[in-house]
Amino acid sequence: MARLYTEHDIAAGRLVALNANQAHYLRTVMRAGPGDCVTLFNGRDGEWAARIESIGKKSGTLLAQHRLREQMAEPGPDLYFAPVKRAPLDFLVQKAVELGVAALQPVMTERTVVGRVNHGRLRAHIVDAAEQCERLSIPDLRAAIKYTMLLDNWPADRHLLICVERGAAPAIDSILKNAGNIEGWDIFIGPEGGFTPSERDLFATLPFATPVSLGPRILRAETAALAAIVCWQVANDAWTRRSHHHRN
Fold first, then answer.
1. What's the CA gap between 93 and 104, in Å, rounded?
2. If you count DSSP H runs as helices and E runs as strands, how many of each does the chain have, helices first?
3. I want to staple 199 with a disulfide (CB 3.0 to 4.6 A). Which of 11, 48, 137, 195 is the partner?
4. How many CB atoms lie under 10 A from the CB of residue 136?
5. What are the chain's domains?
6. How confident is the model over 109-146, as pLDDT tens digits?
7. Could you tell me which residues come within 8 angstroms of residue 184 by beta carbon, excluding any fewer than 6 positions away?
8. Hey, CA dihedral for 94, 95, 98, 100, is it positive or negative?
9. How far is it, in rounded angstroms, from Cα 10 to Cα 210?
10. What is the pLDDT of residues 175-223, one digit of tens each?
11. What are the CA-CA distances from residue 45 to residues 17, 22, 74, 91, 241 (Å)?
């Protein structure tokens, strides 16, 4: 059964408009028509069963019927990452959403080689991944920011785990295990080539930042991001709070 994200409010008996991409997907890819059922969510009202009322090439309407799941909190870290090339970046974003990040923000570091981030493309990947993995929320995608601006304006009530590839940083799992409540702890992944010595020197002066290691191997940026998110979720015990299943 198709599962769709909408920005519209959802309530029993409410008609929800389809955009052109959704209408094309249901009509052409899923071969769905009036009377067929879909599930619907918007990040606010939970997940709903809905029925296709009308559908054309570029538009259509759904009728929301009944709620399947109440909206619930979905704990996860904010992920700050230096943008990488297109294919690895798309993979990173898709899998980070599946693993439960709360927000994503590209950060321009001294060694970042990608100068521009296609916000629209990444947003589409975020929505697709959230629809596929059955989460109830859409992670926020923030505008790219220079690393100095990020650190200068860091909120006082949050902590930052900075994943470094070299040096004597403690293992991320040991830090998280002893941190207590980690729901205010976020993750920062560096660029290809890693953080520069001057960046690492700066990190060492920040009271809200903890450099951590992801193990003895040098990981690609997208691998490092996913490994860190998994460590965070395991430490937060988030994956034992409800049963999950795999999709092929």
1. 8
2. 7, 12
3. 195
4. 19
5. 3-69 (2.40.240.20), 78-240 (3.40.1280.10)
6. 999 999 899 999 999 999 999 999 999 999 999 999 99
7. 157, 158, 159
8. negative
9. 41
10. 999 998 898 999 999 999 999 999 999 999 999 999 999 999 999 999 9
11. 16, 19, 14, 28, 20
**Half-sphere CA count of 60, side-chain side, radius 13 A:** 28
Q: For residue 44, which of 15, 19, 69 has the smallest C-alpha distance?
A: 69
pTM: 0.92
Q: Bin 53: left if φ > 0, else alpha if -120 < ψ < 50, else beta.
A: alpha
d(CA 1, CA 81): 34
Mapped onto helix, strand or coil, the DSSP state of residue 30 is coil
Q: Report which residue type is found at 195.
A: F
- 97: CB partners within 8 A, 6+ apart: 125, 126, 129, 130, 133, 135, 139
Q: 3-class SS at 203? A: helix
